[in-house]
Structure formats: C-alpha cells, structure tokens
Specification:
alpha+beta; 8 helices
Length: 261
C-alpha cells in the first residue's frame, strides 16, 4: 500500500456471498483521542495527522486478508472485528474478536512480512488506518507509546502460549470451558458468568481447534450436568469456580485473556 495514498479516498472491500461493501471515509478525529497514543510526541503527531485515514466498514467487510502485502496498522475506533487464520484446505482458527481501542495489523508493520491473518468487520465499524512508517515513527519516538506497544504484544504472546498449552494438555471439554471463561463477563447480580449473545458452535470449534460436532456434544453434556445453562439470548455459567477447579487441577490457568492496555 502506497504511503502517499490520498487520505480521503474510499476503498471497496470484498464480501463473500454478496456485492463488495464500500469502506467510506468518515469525519476525521485526532490521533491523540485514541488511548493507545496518549503521551505521543506532539511534534511527531503534528506531522502525522494528515497521513491518517478514518474509514468505516460495513458488517462482513474485509479489513485485511491473508498474504496481503500491505503493512498499514489499524485501530478500531468503533465496532468490532474478527481475526482468524485459515489454511489452504479451508481449516480456520479464530484468534479473537476485538473491540474498540484494539490495534490490529501491527505485525506486518514491525517485521515487513505479508499478512498472516484475515480481519473482517463483525458489525459496522470505524477504524483509523495508519501507514506503517507513521506508526513506527510514533512508537519509537514516544516512550509511553512504545512501552504500551511492548506490553500489548507481550500480553498477546502470553495468551497464545496459554492456548498452546491448553491444546497440548486439555481435552476438548476443558478447552471449551476455558474458552467460555475467556468470553464470559460477570452476570447481573453477580450470579456466575454469562456469554451474551451465546456463541455459535462452529465459532467455538474454530477457537479451540475442534470439530463442531464435538463442541455440540460437550455443550449438551455440560448443560445436562448443570455447569452451563443455555438460554435464547445467553449462555450462563452459574458455578464458574467449579469449572476453574476442574481445569487448574491439571496445572493450567483457567481462562486468561490479553490484559487491557
């Protein structure tokens, strides 16, 4: 992607199963409005603002794709995006669903390699698109931003290590439970944990490296045992401490997610 690309140019993004949705330029904000860039050197910010693009994506729009040779960095301003890896045979691994404030695409900016993952907007989303040279200029020239970047990457490596350990040691059942703990939030009134909306079984399978049929079978068993409760709008874990204990007796930390910045 040329770094001299006009800031206001819209870009069409492909969408499977339908016409390509447009990614339209939106009203510009300021880089320092983004929490990640708090403490950035004012002189660097001043010379960088004109090179940013504020872009809106429709649900299902492709933000970046596998093997793409672009190296821009994206910051989700509003909405959410899914990051996944896919093999040539069609096997998928969902790396995560990321919401506002998340930095994505930084690896290509840092190491210069082609994209290793696909990023798709889950809902109507706005992103700030930053040329790699601008991103690196800010990160290397602004210690608070550089430290924030290192902490973010470290948190992602720790989470990746945790998932690798889970896949090596835990059964499908326990990997599923650990992933549900990662996705869950405290239920209203403090009665357990809840995942809302309830996750799609095929998505859960793609998150933990299992077959959808195996996930469906385990969910039915867990529901029967009372470890989870499936309602129309949510999946509830009324006794999450029992789930954590079952996982941790094998020496694996239950759940765990990348820490917020």
């Amino acid at each position: 992607m040329s770094q001299s690309e006009p800031a206001a140019m819209p870009r069409e993004e492909p969408q499977a199963g339908g016409p390509p949705p447009k990614a339209a330029a939106t009203t510009a904000h300021r880089l320092t409005d983004i929490a990640f860039f708090a403490g950035a050197d004012p002189a660097i910010v001043a010379r960088s603002e004109a090179r940013l693009r504020w872009v809106e994506f429709k649900p299902g729009a492709l933000v970046m794709d596998f093997d793409d040779d672009s190296d821009d960095v994206f910051v989700i301003i509003r909405g959410a995006a899914r990051v996944l890896m896919r093999t040539q045979l069609g096997h998928e691994l969902i790396l995560g669903d990321f919401e506002a404030g998340t930095i994505i695409g930084e690896m290509a900016a840092i190491d210069g390699y082609r994209r290793g993952a696909n990023v798709t907007a889950l809902v109507r989303s706005q992103v700030c698109r930053i040329p790699s040279a601008v991103f690196l200029d800010i990160a290397l020239g602004s210690p608070p931003v550089g430290l924030r970047l290192m902490r973010m990457l470290t948190a992602r490596v720790r989470l990746g290590n945790t998932k690798l350990l889970e896949h090596t040691i835990l059964s499908v059942r326990l990997r599923l439970l650990s992933e549900l703990l990662r996705l869950a939030r405290p239920a209203r009134g403090g009665a357990g944990l809840v995942v809302s909306p309830p996750p799609i079984q095929s998505d859960l399978a793609a998150r933990i490296g299992a077959r959808r049929e195996a996930v469906s079978r385990e969910l039915n068993d867990l529901d029967h045992q009372g470890l989870i409760r499936r309602d129309r709008g949510s999946l509830t874990m009324p006794r999450p401490e029992l789930i954590r204990a079952e996982i941790e007796k094998l020496g694996v930390a239950a759940g765990g997610r990348a820490e917020p910045l």
